[in-house]
Design brief:
- The chain contains three helices and three strands; from the N terminus they run H-E-E-E-H-H.
- The mean pLDDT is about 80.
- The protein has a domain of about 60 residues.
- It is elongated, with a radius of gyration of 17 Å.
- With about 110 residues, it is of the alpha+beta class.
- Helices cover about 30% and strands about 25% of the residues.
- It holds the Pfam family DDE_Tnp_4.
């Protein structure tokens, strides 16, 4: 899966504003626990707060719900924020140099 380039990020942001009235949004990020069988000799590394063993899929979607970036293989005991902080996704998003828009009020 290719990392979106500057032009793609801008079109994602425009689509979020058009569909959802969310200016300057370049993606929606969430994590999903995928239930697995306990790995041999893994202890509690994959045991999560939902009381089963899992691995976590962290994904970023565009305004239409299509994946733009995914990261997998994080242990189930980690939360979304911790995974994002350690992920390559964070660095890709931080490296995007979009034109900083003028601040404005969101129309509700």
């Amino acid at each position: 899966m290719q990392v979106p380039n500057r032009k793609h990020w801008k079109s994602i942001a425009q689509r979020f504003e058009t569909l959802w009235n969310l200016p300057n949004c370049i993606g929606a990020i969430d994590g999903q626990h995928v239930r697995i069988e306990k790995f041999a000799n893994s202890g509690s590394f994959n045991f999560n707060y939902k009381l089963y063993h899992s691995t976590v899929l962290l994904a970023c979607c565009d305004a239409d719900g299509l994946f733009t970036m995914i990261e997998t293989s994080y242990t189930g005991r980690n939360n979304d924020g911790g995974i994002f902080k350690a992920s390559a996704m964070k660095y890709w998003i931080q490296s995007v140099e979009l034109d900083n828009p003028t601040p404005r009020t969101i129309n509700l």
